[in-house]
Design brief:
Blueprint: E1 8-9, H1 15-28, E2 32-34, H2 42-52, E3 60-65, H3 75-86, E4 91-96, H4 107-119, E5 123-129, H5 133-143, E6 150-154, H6 162-170, E7 174-178, H7 190-199, H8 203-212, E8 217-218, H9 225-232, H10 241-248
Parallel strand pairs: 1-2, 2-3, 3-4, 4-5, 5-6, 6-7, 7-8
Helix pairs in contact: 1-2, 1-9, 2-3, 4-5, 7-8
């Protein structure tokens, strides 16, 4: 199963805002939509998908299991609720959104429950998000690396997560970068601006192209049609080795998603 390289993120989008974003994105050609239980927008995402007219087989839909549903007796029921909200019989990818806070539930337990949900046909593939090296190793030990379609982590020029990314890829596991534009901070960076000017592109396109050229999938979000269209066009931008190296030099460990229940990062 191949995860589309550019997806449409829906984090922090609510109500009419997320409906319009998904509707516009699908009109422009996005075919991967990423949501999560905690975003509280699965129903609106499902509404937009249903109204789009895009055949289900052409879509790739990802959702994520929240920490409150990680228990073996809760996970499947929570995914069934997500499917009902999304108006789908099956999602393409289901991720464990975060490891259990404080590791109060063993990784093996919720990875096994997720595997059972897949066996029941609720999801085509499974994966993880925000896992440390230790958590990812436990997940691999529990279900095998071949059952982890992707590891979704915060990744942008200012947080490159090299240690975790290298370990993940060494296990043969694909990576998806969330917050790839660092909440829009990339547009103000002089290095990205300079590279963008040389290509007749935008700094956001450069940041996305930098991730895409490393083989990562990206899931930027926007409520503006022009930005949605521009982000999608990043796939056609090719950066030189020197430009890739210049962007690699921007890493400053600037983590934007770091809730109080986050694991101890590598």
């Amino acid at each position: 199963m191949q995860i589309p390289a550019i997806g449409l993120g829906t984090f922090r989008l609510k109500g009419r805002q997320v409906i319009d974003s998904v509707r516009t994105g699908l009109e422009l050609g996005y075919r991967h939509v990423d949501t999560a239980q905690i975003y509280d927008n699965e129903a609106e995402v499902g509404q937009a998908i249903a109204a789009s007219g895009v055949p289900r087989q052409d879509l790739f839909v990802t959702t994520k299991i929240w920490t409150g549903a990680l228990g073996r007796d809760r996970l499947r029921a929570s995914l069934e609720q997500s499917l009902e909200k999304l108006q789908l019989d099956q999602v393409d990818l289901t991720l464990i959104h975060w490891p259990a806070p404080g590791d109060t539930i063993p990784v093996q337990e919720y990875m096994a429950a997720l595997a059972e949900a897949r066996a029941a046909g609720l999801t085509r593939a499974t994966g993880v998000s925000n896992f440390t090296i230790a958590h990812l190793q436990q997940a691999i030990d529990a279900v095998g690396a071949d059952q982890i379609a992707t590891q979704q982590i915060e990744m942008h020029p200012f947080l490159q997560n090299r240690k975790l990314a290298d370990f993940t890829r060494a296990q043969g596991i694909h990576l998806t970068a969330y917050m790839p534009l660092a909440y829009g901070k990339v547009v103000h960076d002089p290095v990205l601006q300079r590279i963008a000017q040389a290509h007749g592109a935008s700094p956001a396109q450069v940041a996305l192209a930098w991730l895409l050229q490393q083989g990562y999938a990206v899931i930027p979000s926007s409520t503006r049609r022009a930005n949605l269209e521009s982000n999608l066009a990043a796939a056609s931008l090719r950066l030189s080795e020197q430009e890739m190296a210049a962007i690699a030099g921007l890493d400053r460990g600037e983590r934007l998603a770091n809730p109080d229940f986050a694991p101890k990062w590598d």
